[in-house]
Write a structure and sequence with these properties.
Distance between the termini of chain A: 19 Å
Order of helices and strands of chain A: HHHHHHHHHHHHHHHHHHH
Order of helices and strands of chain B: HHHEEHHHHHHHHHHHHHHHHHHHH
Helix content of chain A: over 70%
Largest sheet of chain A: none
Number of strands of chain A: 0
Radius of gyration of chain B: 22 Å
Strand content of chain B: under 5%
Structural class of chain A: mainly alpha
Radius of gyration of chain A: 21 Å
Number of helices of chain A: 19
Largest sheet of chain B: 2 strands, antiparallel
Structural class of chain B: mainly alpha
Strand content of chain A: under 5%
Strand order of the largest sheet of chain B: 1-2
Oligomer: heterodimer
């Protein structure tokens, strides 16, 4: 509850700061202070200190998983602000408004991670989506940005429509919006229930860009300003996953037999399309867009397995994936050339940046000693606990082996190729050290995942 | 404590090496660090032999049922000794070779050593997997950054192959883990697992893929000749001398005792692959003109023989494999050192462009002949003891077709003599090719390193007992563990 209200207030504060503060650094500092405050109030609530007491009539439940998930997401946004907020200046003139929109998104995030009613889920998803449409199109004079925004808006509203339809059908079947349904009500699956469930499955699959609902992803990620792509591909995606898992864990536990096979198929298709298409990309930005689809395939395991390991895995995956992807995008946003060749010889001029990038890429590929490996490990372990899932697990690791191909292309370019003619960007010292610290964090989480997961049970 | 220091010394030294800029300094430091590891290894072999020193346990990821546990058993002793012996030889033997960014080069080399030691010591499946990859990553960077023209794609092929194998193994590990009674990754729990025979049959391949690619066994070998050829010679030495042993160790420690029924069932299939590999690689070796490729193919044949011996599942063969793990490593490093010397002095590795080196460099020729003869297992050399035991074991194998396998594998020995003697004749004897560069014989460090290798060759050739004693208990234990004859008695 703390984070929900504080994030909404902070959104308004940021809007006013644009009027009151003339300097952009001041605005940025307010935003960083704001996200720190948000993180702190969330941690307070984890330790039992609630600042606001509001009766939500059981529509919201801030359980431990939700709070810890929020903490990870807020920490990721903090890192994002520290690394990339300077780049936002280049997008357009409405600097403060971008931060305001992000804080509104975070308000939606708290709703999606802690809903107990379908209406709240709908509200949360919409609060996240609408600012995102604006951020995608924020580079107003860029045609690609406009196209991406329109595409995202049209497809996004379509999927929201599906979701609303699904919720309506479910209301018809159960007579309540609450996801905490008693087993009595759900005993007999009927058309309304199964229809509603399928529509929700499809619309959430759209939000997490799982295949075959992923077609918007590459174009939108490619067209949006790179700083905002970074935000969309990490924070927004993992939050949609948290909502996805929460929804199916609460509302459709009894129908697991019906939806599990669909989720398995979606997972396999997502892994296949994401990884295979990423191999053929020439631009690192587009490669990362497909890589995010591929990673979504692995995150879907949490939904498929739907057990304690899966949820721990999702939490770890969130941390591992966000740190690595935010780090890579932060470097990418400063590059002048987005192709693989743009990274040629980066290790000669910037050994620290190249080293950190290597750690991030190894983490995304799932090499041991990095957080990414432990995340994948938890997911595989969770999935194997389900009988009859060996085929899916074997398929997933084969696809993980494919992913090595495109992640290592960047490493090869940085270390083994001579620098090209394009001028390498210069990175500020603070930025470099931040990247170094993040790389250490990735390795720490890879060695001691219990540092994070242990918090889940206290 | 010994086990822990075997990993800690190279790990710490490797990280420090990255910071040293000067080439001479970093070389000396690497040599010193590798000698320190050797000292630790010898200490564990001779003085501090109780479990208290050889085992190490620390809590790590306890919620998963994994712990940081290391155990130095007989096979571990041999392989750690090999790793510890190999590094001073590699650093000393290639003292004259210069590398760009020497700090990074030796740093990665030492990190790889830490990873290798970890693989040989780990007695926890998850830890084993960690080290397995940890040894691979530095090798990837080493082979990609320093070496021949085509090194980047070639090394990448190697990396993708091994990574594919290891992720399959990860599933295997996870599967066995899910079947353990106490949900633990420890080796002891893995050995206690009873998996139904029909399931074992497919889980076997998840593990075997990883180990077969690493060794490599035919038909998973295609990465190997290219990688050996393209990587810089010190890297190749570690790859071929030490790293391939990871595959055999995996078979012996992590596959066969865990899945004994499948190992028995698939024994013939694996032996067929191994024997095909021996013959096929030897035939190709005969046709090679590049010294590096010749040795690479000869290595495939040797490893094939060891793989076949492992699957004959008896004490003689196992003891043969144990001693050969060490011998093959030392001998092949000796061969690479000489190839590197030849390449640096004469500017070519092509057999057709070389000739009459024995007149120009008699000392080198002597060393080379001795090492090459050890490689084809002439009596009195270390290779003989190992191969004799392995063939003895093959003849006692439980397989119905053991005679066929033994005869075909024996054919491999003859072919090995053909290509090795041919190579010696063409390069060292015969008409001297006129070369532009003035040729000198061996330098002091090279004499020293090759002298040590020759000493080991003769010592273990005459007195193999000194090494066999170390692995005696392990081999007996192991044969008992994989024995499934109780199933037939019922």
């Amino acid at each position: 509850m703390n984070a929900l209200i504080v994030s909404a207030v902070l959104g308004v504060v940021m809007m006013f700061s644009g009027i009151l503060l003339k300097q952009k650094t001041a605005v940025r500092n307010v935003a960083i202070a704001g996200i720190l405050l948000l993180l702190i109030v969330n941690l307070l609530e984890m330790n039992g200190i609630t600042l606001f007491k509001i009766d939500t009539h059981g529509m919201l439940l801030f359980d431990h998983f939700a709070l810890l998930f929020n903490a990870v997401v807020f920490a990721a946004v903090l890192l994002y602000f520290l690394l990339s907020s300077a780049e936002m200046e280049k997008v357009g003139v409405n600097y403060a408004e971008y931060f305001a929109l992000i804080f509104f998104i975070l308000c939606g995030v708290t709703l999606v991670t802690s809903f107990k009613s379908l209406l709240i889920l709908f509200l949360g998803i919409e609060i996240i989506s609408i600012p995102l449409y604006i951020l995608t199109g924020s580079d107003k004079r860029n045609l690609k940005s406009n196209e991406a925004s329109l595409k995202y808006f049209l497809l996004g509203t379509f999927s929201t429509g599906l979701m609303l339809m699904g919720i309506a059908l479910l209301y018809g079947a159960r007579g309540t919006f609450s996801t905490a349904v008693s087993p009595m009500v759900t005993a007999t699956p009927n058309f309304l229930l199964l229809g509603g469930m399928s529509l929700l499955l499809f619309s959430m699959a759209f939000k997490v860009s799982a295949a075959p609902f992923h077609f918007w992803t590459p174009d939108v990620y490619d067209g949006a300003p790179t700083v905002f792509t970074s935000f969309m591909a990490t924070i927004v995606k993992v939050v949609a996953f948290a909502g996805f898992v929460r929804l199916f864990d609460d509302a459709f536990e009894a129908q697991q037999a019906q939806w599990r096979i669909w989720v398995a198929v979606i997972t396999a298709v997502t892994l296949f399309i994401g990884n295979i298409t990423a191999v053929f990309q020439q631009s690192v930005k587009r490669m990362l867009a497909y890589s995010s689809i591929a990673q979504a395939g692995f995150m879907l395991f949490a939904l498929y397995a739907m057990n304690a390991d899966g949820k721990e895995g999702l939490l770890l995956y969130t941390a591992a994936y966000c740190i690595a992807t935010i780090g890579i995008f932060a470097v990418l946003a400063r590059m002048s050339d987005y192709t693989f060749d743009g990274f040629n010889g980066l290790s000669r001029g910037e050994p620290l940046v190249a080293g950190a990038l290597t750690v991030f890429l190894l983490s995304l590929a799932g090499i041991p000693l990095t957080a990414g490996f432990m995340a994948k490990f938890y997911m595989l372990k969770a999935a194997l606990a389900t009988p009859g899932s060996s085929w899916l697990v074997v398929f997933a690791v084969l696809m993980a082996a494919v992913s090595v191909y495109y992640y290592f292309r960047v490493i090869q370019a940085m270390y083994f190729k001579a620098p090209g003619e394009t001028v390498q960007p210069s990175f500020p010292a603070f930025f470099k050290w931040m990247l170094g610290i993040l790389a250490v964090l990735v390795i720490l989480l890879g060695l001691f995942p219990e540092l994070l997961l242990g918090r889940l049970y206290f | 404590m010994i086990a822990f220091f075997l990993i800690l010394v190279p790990l710490a030294a490797g990280l420090i090496s990255f910071l040293i800029k000067e080439e001479k300094a970093v070389k000396s430091f690497a040599l010193l660090a590798s000698l320190a590891s050797l000292a630790v290894s010898v200490l564990g072999l001779t003085v501090l032999k109780t479990d208290q020193y050889l085992n190490f346990n620390a809590p790590w990821m306890s919620s998963l049922g994994s712990s940081f546990s290391l155990k130095l058993d007989g096979m571990g002793q041999v392989l750690c000794l090999l790793t510890a012996v190999a590094y001073p030889l590699v650093v000393g033997g290639s003292w004259q070779a210069s590398h760009q960014k020497p700090g990074r080069f030796f740093g990665l080399m030492l990190l790889a050593q830490a990873g290798l030691m970890g693989v040989f010591l780990a007695s926890d499946a998850l830890l084993f997997y960690f080290f397995w990859e940890l040894a691979l990553i530095p090798m990837y960077f080493l082979a990609s950054q320093w070496g021949g023209e085509r090194r980047i794609p070639v090394t990448f092929k190697f990396f993708v192959y091994t990574f594919l194998g290891s992720v399959l193994m990860l599933i295997g590990i996870l599967y066995v883990y899910s079947q353990t009674a106490d949900h633990s990754f420890s080796l002891a729990s893995f050995y206690k697992v009873q998996i139904p025979g029909s399931t074992q049959l497919w889980v076997f391949w998840l593990f075997f893929a990883a180990f077969a690619i690493k060794m490599p066994v035919f038909p998973f070998h295609t990465w190997q000749p290219d990688t050996y050829e393209q990587a810089s010679t010190p890297t190749t030495m570690i790859l071929s001398g030490v790293m391939v042993k990871m595959g055999l160790l995996g078979l012996i420690r992590w596959l066969m005792p865990v899945l004994p029924i499948a190992s028995y069932q698939w024994g013939d299939t694996v032996m067929i692959l191994a024997v095909i590999g021996i013959i096929y690689a030897s035939l190709i070796a005969i046709r090679q003109d590049d010294l590096k490729r010749l040795i690479a193919y000869s290595s495939i044949a040797h490893l094939g023989l060891m793989c076949a011996a492992v699957f004959s599942e008896n004490i003689s063969a196992t003891q043969g494999v144990m001693i050969q793990l060490f011998n093959h490593g030392v001998n092949i490093i000796g061969l690479w050192i000489i190839v590197e010397i030849i390449e640096r002095r004469y500017g070519t590795r092509k057999i057709s462009e070389l000739g009459g080196l024995a007149q120009q460099a008699p000392v080198m020729a002597t060393f080379f002949v001795i090492i090459a003869l050890a490689n084809i297992a002439l009596p009195l050399t270390n290779g003989f003891a190992g191969e004799f035991l392995m063939f003895n074991g093959l003849l006692g194998a439980k397989s119905k077709y053991f005679v066929v396998f033994t005869v075909l594998a024996g054919l491999g020995i003859i072919l090995a003599a053909v290509y090795t003697l041919n190579m010696i004749r063409k390069t060292f004897y015969g008409e001297a090719v006129s070369l532009k560069v003035p040729v000198t014989d061996l330098k002091l460090n090279e004499k020293l390193v090759l002298g040590v290798i020759v000493l080991i060759i003769f010592w273990l050739g005459i007195h193999p007992q000194s090494l066999l004693e170390v692995t005696d208990g392990f081999a007996k234990d192991w044969v008992n563990k994989i024995d499934i004859s109780y199933l037939f008695r019922k």
